[in-house]
């Protein structure tokens, strides 16, 4: 047991370790290297001292964890949250290793975080925090080393500050040090919609494989933000009926299908789905038992748990959010024949277009949105079909199959590179 972990509470890292144990029997000769996956390569804890607007000095704790770099530079977001811990960032970094390998983009896994409640600080204070953090982790990040991106409570603006700080420190503009940047600073077209587009793409593939026509399929979505909103729009455009949407303001329902484009306008104007005309209001707890074919959790973690998993009627559940299904719920859904398309593949569209952003920054040559979307769809379809094949071959869930594909790729790279020295 590493000294930096509490043996009584391994937190999210403990869940990740169990997932690795579950796939180990399927790794063949590569199982010899499995301990690689159980040890983050590098974990940096930094102190971020900042002078606040009132003249006092506050200290924030920040992390950057590089879980595995066998397949390429680290890649993963940075979150600003008061409760973020080293264990959580370690697990998130490991899941990025799995996600990047699952869609076969040439990145390892990394993640970062700062223990701060961003709602309590001014924009100027947050800028200082982001800049000092970037400077402190500057030792281990870089376009060929580790490339951060937005995550919970960070956005394009934070990425612009990070890119500028790193560039100032090295004395040259380095757009490729972060992804998820504004378009005017080397960001990529299609990045904002990429995760929702990936969710739709794998959902449509899964539906085809189980013989469920998208035309007329009943879809329910939790979360109508970046991921859920775009996924709902694409399903509606493909002829599906989006019958229910839940967000932090309420749950709405329309048996004949909601008008998604109008709902998007309503959310832009009012900040949530509550109050949308042409829909009935539904009790929040009824949402998970709704009569639908495709259910898309695209909001928060641990939403589908032992209390509501048994009520899910959908044939396919596509995890747009990270970690929306608890391990117990996963087993219940499996027993009830619900096909779960796991987060590590379903929401990998975002990191795939981040990869495109990084490639475009390196070559200083930018692609059209059409090219980006075509390439995204091909990568997502190929990745999903490879995972499907492994699931059939070993008679395992798509989650275990995704881990088998991804961990095999990571450990294959480990074996080919050999151990240094
Ligand atoms: N944006 C990406 O590229 C990306 C990539 C991979 C994974 N994800 C994951 O997808 C999820 C959603 O991310 P996003 O970028 O769409 O965020 P977002 O902030 O754009 O949208 C979040 C949505 O969740 C809803 N929500 C919040 N609290 C809720 C509650 N208690 N009950 C019901 N709904 C609630 C909000 O109303 C909003 O509609 C997160 O888990 C995120 O980690 C996002």
Can you describe this structure in just a few lines?
With 421 residues, this protein is an alpha/beta fold. It has twelve helices and twelve strands.
CATH topology of the largest domain: Rossmann fold
Instruction: Tell me the domain tally.
Output: 2
Class inferred from helices and paired strands: alpha/beta
Which sheet architecture does the biggest sheet show?
7 strands, mixed
User: Based on the structure given, which CATH architecture of the largest domain is correct?
Assistant: 3-Layer(aba) Sandwich
State the low-pLDDT regions, or none: none
The side-by-side strand order for the widest beta sheet comes to: 9-8-7-6-10-11-12
Radius of gyration: 21 Å
Summarize the SSE layout with pairings:
Elements: H1 11-23, E1 42-51, E2 57-68, E3 74-80, H2 86-102, E4 109-114, H3 123-137, E5 146-150, H4 156-170, H5 191-209, E6 218-222, H6 226-237, E7 241-247, E8 250-253, H7 260-270, E9 280-281, E10 294-297, E11 316-318, H8 327-335, E12 339-341, H9 343-346, H10 349-363, H11 369-394, H12 398-417
Parallel strand pairs: 3-4, 3-5, 6-7, 6-10, 10-11, 11-12
Antiparallel strand pairs: 1-2, 2-4, 7-8, 8-9
Question: If you had to describe this structure to a student in words, what would you say it looks like?
Answer:
This is Glutamate dehydrogenase. GO terms for molecular function: glutamate dehydrogenase (NAD+) activity; nucleotide binding. The record marks 151 as: Important for catalysis. This protein has 421 residues and is α/β, with parallel strands linked by helices. It has 2 domains: 12-173, Rossmann fold (3-Layer(aba) Sandwich), CATH 3.40.50; 193-346, NAD(P)-binding Rossmann-like Domain (Rossmann fold), CATH 3.40.50. The protein has 12 helices and 12 strands. Helix 1 (11-23) packs parallel to helix 2 (86-102). The mean pLDDT is 96. The structure holds nicotinamide-adenine-dinucleotide. Nicotinamide-adenine-dinucleotide is lined by residues 195, 222-228, 246-248, 272, 298-300, 320-322, 347, 350.
